[in-house]
Specification:
This protein is α+β, with helices and mostly antiparallel strands. It contains 19 helices and 28 strands. The protein is globular.
Length: 599
């Protein structure tokens, strides 16, 4: 098989002709609506050459397009050069959505094709409705990319382990009992669960089937008396199989989920989330079976961390803070003396995290971006793009670790040497936003939409902004992005991150500012939601910093900050020093004392 994008597109187009398909939709998806996918599922990357984590391709006989969001505009434009694939910048004025494009481009009698296992049931249903009006049909039965992808990597089958209750805080049987109670309330006979992080959370198991996400490729069906786990049996050691079996979990072949749903009896009620379950699986449910389309029953319990998980997360963030602080010390004392590049800095930080007890790996691909690279929100250094970090400007480090005690995600913008007044102004504005959001006190019932302005306010006052959400929920030794909590200023339905804040939810707080071709700034801490006092007006809520790492005082203009903001920074820095200094050697302690001095 030829290996340039235009040649792959030509092969796909001839297969489309053969199958009577006029357009073919290629999302970034596995069979579980996962945000990040294993190599076996990277069809969109294979067909377009674009490597970002989010994007959708459409191929027609006379055009190919890629839709992606603001995080990836710069990267996509670079990677699509010479590919014949056209970039559609999602959310920009005059740019049609994928659905609008298909609606206006496909004519009566034409057909849209896709692999129904990689398109969720809700989206497939919407497309079918829209296109039907124009006499266009939909065929979701063919994996055409798989047919031309000769050296396609096999599906992952990493060893599954159990997560001890001392980490999980709640046993598998207790979790299953609670979910069954919810099924009863909803009057559901079967709960069909296909989201990988939900299954891992519910069964207290962890795997390695998605890079950086400790999940197991699987589907789960639960009734009042049985639990079927559809997965590759080879991934399960005997002791894990026995433990699952003891708790009433029956292991079945991965693909057998389709025949299981097809054999459900008429009159049964199946609860599933159509935006998570793939369209081929939802389509295999017999017509006499009622589908209750609701959020996964596991979504909220997974997001509301129990007291054991919250306490463990505090411990994970101390370990992570030690590694990060040692890294900052190393960077600041060596810059300009030895050669440091984006990749060598990445390796250094990974090695410092690896020294921490119960460290399990990265929680996502490090974003170690110097200078203009930091203007690309989700840049990851490669051998081709790696640059030397100079003793000037900003280095943006957005990194995280997986520990048995939880998942971390932290961004620091580090001043490597002289910076401009403009850079200092925006560094300070972004930091003010981070501090103000973390210090929020609010009535119970607020969502991220109510609070987002606290983070954007300093930028909005200058008529400036950033092109991404302000924060996302984080899993417990699971996916670094997790719903339904988050911070953003407008509702983005497919993100599902506008839930009411509950005690125990952990969310990132990460405003930013980016100047294309020049620099990028982002300051990110993890914060956990807690109850504050209860008054005649009701229950008040607040946040607590989990991340314990100094912000770079070399980037700040204190005169731009209010007295309250300086107070917030000083008390946070005092806490960082008290928490982290006992784990450092003498030189590092001295450095940290200066780095957390009151301003």
């Amino acid at each position: 098989m030829s290996n340039t994008v235009p040649e792959r597109l030509a092969a796909l187009r001839s297969l489309m002709k053969e199958k009577g398909m006029d357009a073919y939709l290629i999302p970034t998806d596995d069979y579980h609506a996962s945000e990040y996918v294993g190599d076996h599922f990277k069809c969109r990357k294979y067909m377009t050459g674009f490597t970002g984590s989010a994007g959708t391709a459409v191929v027609m006989q006379d055009m190919a397009g890629l839709w992606t969001d603001g995080r990836y505009f710069i990267q996509a434009a670079q990677q699509l050069e010479g590919s014949t694939v056209q970039l559609f910048k999602m959310g920009e004025p005059g740019v049609p959505t994928v659905h609008e494009f298909l609606e206006s481009s496909l004519k009566e009698g034409q057909c849209l094709g896709f692999d129904g296992r990689t398109v969720n049931a809700r989206e497939a249903g919407e497309l079918e409705e829209k296109l039907k009006k124009n006499g266009v049909t939909v065929n979701g039965t063919e994996d055409l990319v798989g047919a031309i992808w000769t050296d396609r990597p096999p599906m992952s089958c990493e060893t599954v382990s159990e997560l001890d209750v001392k980490w999980a805080g709640k046993s598998r049987s207790d979790k299953c009992r609670e979910i069954r109670e919810k099924m009863q309330e909803k009057n559901a006979d079967v709960f069909l669960l296909t989201s990988l992080d939900d299954i891992a959370w519910l069964l207290n198991i962890r795997g390695g089937d998605v890079h950086c996400n400790p999940v197991v490729l699987s589907y789960l069906a639960m009734t009042s008396s049985e639990i079927y786990l559809f997965a590759n049996e080879k991934a399960f050691p005997e002791e894990v199989k026995d433990a699952l079996n003891k708790d009433g979990v029956t292991l079945c072949p991965y693909d057998a989920v389709y025949s299981y749903t097809a054999s459900l009896e008429a009159g049964k009620r199946v609860l599933l989330c159509r935006s998570k379950v793939n369209s081929r699986l939802a389509g295999s449910v017999p017509s006499g079976v009622e589908i209750l389309d609701e959020e996964n029953l596991t979504l909220l319990p997974k997001a509301i961390k129990n007291p054991v998980e919250v306490e463990n997360e505090r411990i994970a963030h101390i370990k992570d803070g030690v590694a990060m602080t040692k890294f900052l010390y190393w960077l600041k004392t060596n810059i300009g003396k030895t050669t440091i590049t984006e990749l060598s800095a990445t390796e250094k930080l990974q090695s410092l995290r690896a020294q921490q007890e119960n460290y399990m790996g990265d929680s996502f691909d490090y974003i170690m971006s110097y200078g203009p690279h930091a203007a690309m929100n989700h840049y990851s250094a490669t051998l081709e793009t790696d640059v030397k970090i100079e003793a000037k400007g900003f280095l943006l480090a957005d990194t995280g670790g997986q520990y048995l005690e939880g998942t971390t995600d932290i961004t620091r913008t580090i001043v490597m040497g002289p910076i401009t007044d403009e850079q200092r102004k925006f560094f300070t504005a972004v930091l003010r936003g981070t501090l103000n959001l973390a210090a929020a006190k609010f009535r119970y019932g607020c969502r991220g939409l109510n609070l987002d302005y606290l983070a954007r306010g300093p930028l909005w006052e200058m008529g400036e902004d950033f092109n991404h959400g302000t924060g996302h929920g984080v899993g417990y030794y699971l996916n670094v992005h997790e719903g339904p909590n988050g911070f953003r200023w407008k509702v983005v339905p497919e993100r599902n991150d506008s839930a009411v804040f509950e005690e125990g939810m952990i969310t990132s707080d990460e405003p930013g500012y980016y100047v294309e071709g020049q620099y990028g700034i982002r300051h990110e801490n993890m914060i956990v939601c807690k109850k504050a006092e209860k008054t005649a007006f009701g229950q008040f809520m607040c946040f607590e910093h989990l991340t314990m790492v100094p912000f770079d005082l070399d980037g700040i203009d204190p005169s731009m900050m209010t007295g309250r903001e300086r107070g917030l920074l000083n008390s946070y820095h005092a806490q960082v020093y008290d928490t982290i200094s006992p784990y450092l050697n003498e030189e590092e302690q001295e450095w940290l004392k200066e780095a957390t001095r009151a301003i």
